[in-house]
Every structure is written in structure tokens, then in C-alpha cells.
Design brief:
This protein is of the alpha/beta class and about 475 residues long. The chain has 13 helices and 14 strands. It has a ten-stranded mixed sheet with strand order 6-5-4-3-7-1-8-9-2-10, with helices on both faces. It has a four-stranded antiparallel sheet with strand order 11-12-13-14, covered by helices on one side. Strand 5 and strand 6 form a beta hairpin. The N and C termini lie far apart (about 45 Å).
Length: about 475
């Protein structure tokens, strides 16, 4: 009997609050604050036969670092991807030498498919159709960095079927490179086209894989990632669900600043959310029609969240606030037909070992992996938080190192983030009691004499020490974080 298949769908910037299931009282008790008034019928139906992990986080909540952790099982200090990848950041590039999630699946006999956004490469001048040039249409040499990239076969880590791109944020004008480097510009909303390709792969319309082997398909949709400002960024039918609703009826979380210019974008963000839901539903239907539904592990999650005007922030991500830090994480195991809710923390590096364990491949997980198999964990645990910025630059202005500006921790009750200056002096503390302050609007003073906060700092020290984070290596804020008290 062949191993279970894997279908892993992860739209970008899809926040935890944007699921319809939170309207259900069974689920609402597990969400901090009010949910978004979204329409996601396919995901809601999926949740009825899946396990909803309510404490899943994106530890370093920007695209590339999360993806680096997903692929390697390592935190950003070890994955090779501490920053969002672009051609100015020489220090952020998924190493070709790293044994990745897809490498292990390939070695175990899986046929691997990858569709959509990759964003794990240092862009280089490797356009397959114009050698010596970048593929980024906006790249002007000497003026701005190239973000988009072409991923050559040697950088695909065991992936057999490739239909992807680096990063390109034009939802209705996407482009892709196939396994052989041929470029496609379908002029279709990207998530819809990616669902079409996923359905082709699952049903094996073109005979790209041997049906006697299990498959592992990763579908990385860009929406609801920005931009979400106009009909150029979504579909009219999806926008119709929200366009006649006032801002105050869409941005219902108490910490949302409705005066921000960004507030006008709410209908377009939610339109993309509902659009992704429709395309996910189409993919699931195709999987059921093949008869492989009961033999497939299906995951729906995201790179990171979206602040969407909460806390008065224009930046969508890269902060410890729940709207940015928490992500949906729904998992349907093979043969599962009942809903379940799990509250243990799932961190980005935990995804790889957790899924491999569920697929019966735990013995294939490299001993260097920092993440842990968490699906069956009996304790909630905690999650670490990281915010990295550009660090040292070379003589050409290229970033060759990163600066670990902030570190933090989230437990079942508290959220704590500490920020430092380039001299490693404390500049800001964010501490919240998430039970009494679900919108994280009232920061507490970090009283180191308080036993609860002492425990919080010990856990932070333990986590940073275990993964050999730069803060541990440089003993940053050692007068607060008791590194020497943990093993």
C-alpha cells in the first residue's frame, strides 16, 4: 500500500481572524477578539473534517523567513533565510546544500509538485529566456533591487513538477516558469490559475507522474498578500461580497484604526480571502473526485498574518501582534472525518517534522532540525518571535549580515517582545496579558520581580539558548533574560 499523499496549500498573508469558522461558538472561544466578517464556506466545510490548530504562528512573520523554516525545519538564524529575499540581501538565500522538506519526501518515493510563489532564492541574472538578465520586470540596474527570481532545477530541492516564480505582486497579471524554464503569462487572477494547475496535477491530466507513487503537492497562492487596493487585485464576484459594506462593519476588531488610509482596502483584502476560499474548494473537489481524499494529508495555512489597520499600523506584518503573528493551520489526516480543535503551539520549523511524522517518515528527519513534531503534543508549550533587519553591508552596498532587532515569546497567556538598538540596548518592551487584553491594547510593565514574568523570561532564555540564537550568543539583555539559568 502506498503512503498517504500530501496537499499543502498556503496562501500568503492570510490572517487567522479571516476564517468563517470563528463565527461558530465552538471555535470562537479560541480566538482573541472578534473574527473578521468573511465568507469562507469551503474552508468552513473543510474544518468540519480537520483539526484546527488555534496556536499556530509565523515566528518571523515575513514571507521568506517563514518559508525557509518550512523547508528546513530550522529557525531563521540557521535556515539561511533570516530576511526577505531580494538581490540586495546576499545573506538570505535557501542553501542548495540544505536537506529540505521536499528532498526528504522525494527520497521517500514521493513525486513532488510545487505551484506558485517560492521566494526563497537570492535573485540572480539567470533569466532562462535572456541569459545574463534578471527576470524582475521592474529591475533597473543600480537603482533598485530585483525581487522576482527564476529557480533553476539545481535549486528546487527534489521538486519534480515546477510551475512557479520568485515573488511578483500583480494578482491579475501573474507569470510562471515551468519545469523546463518556459515562461507563461495567463492573464488570469493568480489563485484561480494556480488552482487550475493544481487540479491538472492531482488528476494527472498530462501524465506528469506515476500514479503508483504518492504525491506531495505544495500550492503557494499570493493573494491575499498586498496589493489589495482595486479591482486589479481581485475578482469582481469576490469583491461583490464586501464592496457595499461600510469600513466599520468590515474592520470590527477593537484595535483597528479606521482613520488610516489603508482602511479603504478592507473590501479588497476580504475579496481575496473569499477568492482563495473558492479556489481551495475547487482543489479539494478535484482531490475527492480522484478517490484520493481519504488517503491524503491536507494542510491549509499561511506564511504570516495581516495587521489590516490594527494598532494603527500601515505595515501588514513583521510584528508580534496577533493579527500578524498568528496564522490559520487546518490539518485533515488521512481517514479523518470529524472536526477537532488543538491548542498546542505550532511554530514554523515544527511544520516539517510534524508532517513527516504524520506520513510515517519521522526517522527521515535530520537530527539538525530544530522544530519538533507537534501534532500529538500533550502540552501547549510556547512560540518564539523574531524580527530581523538589514545588518552589515559590503563595499557595494549589499547586505551581508542581519541585525536581530527584536526577540520575544508567546505563551498561552502572555505575549512579550523586546527590541534593542544596534548597541544591544533595550529600546522598547511590549508585554500583554492576552487573557484580559485580547486586542493587546494595554501593555504591561515588565516587573522582573513578578513570578509570572520571571517564568516568561526563563522560557525565552531557554528557547533562544536551545536554537543558539544571536541574542544568546551575544548575551543580549542578560540582565533580564537569564541565559545562565537554563540548560
Amino acid at each position: 500500500m502506498k503512503r498517504p499523499n500530501l496537499l499543502y496549500v498556503f496562501p500568503d498573508q492570510f490572517r487567522l481572524m479571516s476564517l468563517g469558522i470563528w463565527q461558530n461558538p465552538t471555535y470562537s472561544a479560541h480566538l482573541s477578539g472578534r473574527p473578521d466578517p468573511v465568507t469562507t464556506p469551503n474552508l468552513d466545510t473543510f474544518a468540519l473534517t480537520a483539526t484546527s490548530y488555534t496556536n499556530a504562528v509565523s515566528n518571523c512573520p515575513v514571507c521568506s523567513p517563514h518559508r525557509g523554516s518550512l523547508m528546513t525545519g530550522l529557525y531563521p538564524n540557521k535556515s539561511g533565510v533570516p530576511l526577505n529575499c531580494n538581490s540586495d540581501r546576499l545573506c538570505s538565500d535557501l542553501p542548495q546544500s540544505q536537506t529540505c522538506f521536499t528532498d526528504i519526501l522525494s527520497q521517500a518515493g514521493y513525486h513532488i509538485g510545487y505551484i506558485g510563489k517560492w521566494h526563497l532564492d537570492l535573485p540572480t541574472a539567470n533569466d532562462p529566456e535572456s541569459p545574463g538578465r534578471f527576470v524582475d520586470a521592474y529591475f533597473v540596474e543600480g537603482e533598485q533591487p530585483a525581487w522576482d527570481s527564476y529557480t533553476e532545477p539545481k535549486r528546487r530541492h527534489g521538486i519534480d513538477y515546477w510551475y512557479g516564480y520568485g515573488t511578483f505582486d500583480q494578482h491579475t497579471n501573474p507569470h510562471y516558469y515551468d519545469s523546463h524554464g518556459k515562461r507563461y503569462e495567463p492573464k488570469v487572477w493568480s489563485a484561480e490559475h494556480e488552482a487550475d494547475k493544481a487540479i491538472e496535477y492531482i488528476t494527472n491530466q498530462s501524465g506528469v507522474r506515476d500514479d503508483s507513487h504518492p504525491f506531495a503537492l505544495f500550492v503557494s497562492m499570493n493573494p491575499p498578500h498586498s496589493p489589495y487596493n482595486s479591482l486589479k487585485d481581485c475578482r469582481e464576484a469576490d469583491l461583490a461580497l464586501y464592496q457595499d459594506k461600510g469600513t466599520n462593519s468590515l474592520l470590527v476588531r477593537e484595535n483597528a484604526d479606521l482613520e488610516l488610509e489603508k482602511a479603504k482596502s478592507a473590501p479588497y483584502y476580504f475579496a481575496n480571502v473569499s477568492g482563495v476560499d473558492k479556489e481551495f474548494g475547487r482543489i479539494v473537489d478535484a482531490l475527492k473526485q480522484t478517490g484520493e481524499w481519504e488517503n491524503t494529508l491536507v494542510v491549509f495555512t499561511s506564511d504570516h498574518g495581516e495587521t489590516l489597520c490594527s494598532h494603527g499600523l500601515e505595515d501588514a506584518k513583521n510584528c508580534i501582534y496577533n493579527e500578524s503573528f498568528q496564522v490559520p493551520f487546518l490539518v485533515k489526516s488521512p481517514q479523518q472525518n470529524e472536526a477537532d480543535i488543538a491548542t498546542q503551539f505550532i511554530s514554523s520549523p515544527d511544520i516539517m517534522p510534524s508532517i513527516l511524522s504524520k506520513l510515517g517518515l519521522s526517522d527521515q528527519v535530520p537530527n539538525t532540525v530544530q522544530g519538533e513534531a507537534r501534532f500529538e503534543a500533550s502540552k501547549n508549550g510556547y512560540a518564539l518571535y523574531f524580527r530581523n533587519l538589514d545588518g552589515e553591508k559590503d563595499h557595494l552596498g549589499k547586505v551581508i549580515d542581519y541585525f536581530p532587532q527584536s526577540r520575544g515569546i508567546k505563551t498561552e497567556r502572555y505575549t512579550l517582545a523586546l527590541e534593542v538598538s544596534p548597541e544591544y540596548q533595550l529600546t522598547k518592551t511590549r508585554l500583554f496579558d492576552d487573557q484580559s487584553d485580547p486586542y493587546q491594547r494595554h501593555p504591561l510593565e515588565l516587573d522582573v520581580q513578578n513570578p509570572a514574568f520571571q517564568s516568561l523570561l526563563r522560557q525565552l532564555a531557554q528557547g533562544l539558548t536551545r536554537i543558539e540564537d544571536p541574542w544568546y550568543q551575544h548575551q543580549v539583555l542578560s540582565h533580564l533574560i537569564p541565559y545562565n539559568e537554563v540548560k
